[in-house]
Specification:
By secondary structure, the chain is an alpha+beta fold. It is built from nine helices and 15 strands.
Length: about 300
């Protein structure tokens, strides 16, 4: 007697899908989608990518080999500028010497709005409510050392054909930041695919290297305020409107955070470690550098910690 034949029953029409087919589909998606994400990330261009269309960054290539021959006469081995005080510097091969120091050096400094503390019981209320801006350094907030800074200057080779290309230089400040939600996860993935596994998504701050015009000051909501820098209290331009909220959280600043631009018309006079006006014929001036002459640098000034 013939045994009945057993046949597989499908609930619907069409061929069945097994694990191998699902794996093949996933591999196909990864092979085609990942390269597209790398070359065409689904994100708006960053400030740096926009600047690279018409500008080029200053600074030397850190990958090049340096001559270590110690038999040569004394020479400058490294020349650095720090556009934002206490943040990462930029090694350059040459620099213009301006009245206040090297070009692009210490144009900006971060500051926090502080109230007088501690106060005694007999301190008048008018003094208790007084607030003053005070600059901050890596001594106060060590994470300033992790802020990347680049200066982009116009590149004539790139500006050809860009009639509206700006002739101004710009400063870009970057810090690592991961947003929450789907958009944050997408930026995290794009950073890993585009810049390597160790890369992290970043936020950027765009600042002008030149001093803003009166029209720009009014339009952008900037304000002139007194700022305490060591023993000096210069009047500088507060441009805190350019700072994202995330930067204050990243640095761990609980007070109000601002960023000040030194006014070229209101530079600080240097009397310590500098010749007098009687001897030199003029009084040396600086921006947000420490009050030392260019020929008598302190260790913190040389390391960019000031």
């Amino acid at each position: 007697m013939d045994q009945p034949k057993l046949t597989a029953r499908r609930d619907g029409p069409g061929p069945g899908v097994d694990a191998g087919g699902i794996l093949l589909v996933l591999v196909t998606i990864i092979v085609f989608i990942l390269p597209a994400l790398i070359y065409f990330p689904p994100m708006l261009p960053s400030k740096t990518e926009a600047l690279l269309q018409t500008h080029s960054p200053i600074g030397r290539d850190p990958r090049r080999d340096r001559d270590r021959d110690g038999n040569r006469p004394a020479q400058v081995r490294s020349l650095c500028v720090y556009p934002v005080k206490s943040c990462k510097g930029i090694e350059v091969s040459r620099s213009k010497v301006m009245p206040a120091g090297l070009q692009f050096d210490r144009l900006y400094t971060f500051a926090q709005l502080k109230s007088p503390f501690p106060v005694s019981l007999d301190t008048p209320e008018s003094e208790k409510s007084q607030h003053a801006w005070e600059f901050i350094t890596q001594r106060h907030f060590p994470l300033l050392a992790t802020l990347e800074v680049d200066v982009y200057v116009p590149d004539l080779a790139k500006t050809r054909g860009h009639g509206d290309a700006s002739g101004d230089a710009f400063i870009v400040v970057r810090f690592p930041w991961v947003d929450g939600g789907f958009l944050g996860a997408l930026r995290w993935l794009v950073a890993k695919l585009g810049r390597g596994w160790r890369a992290m998504p970043e936020k950027e701050i765009l600042l002008p290297a030149s001093f803003p015009s009166p029209e720009e000051v009014q339009q952008c909501g900037y304000s002139y305020e007194e700022l305490r820098v060591w023993r000096d209290t210069p009047t500088a331009l507060n441009m805190e409107a350019e700072l994202p909220r995330e930067l204050r959280l990243y640095l761990g600043v609980s007070n109000r955070l601002g960023i000040f631009r030194i006014d070229p018309a209101r530079l600080r006079n240097v009397y310590r470690c500098a010749p007098t006006e009687v001897d030199a014929g003029y009084q040396p001036v600086i921006g947000f550098q420490d009050a030392v002459s260019s020929f008598s640098l302190s260790p913190t000034h040389a390391l960019g910690l000031d």
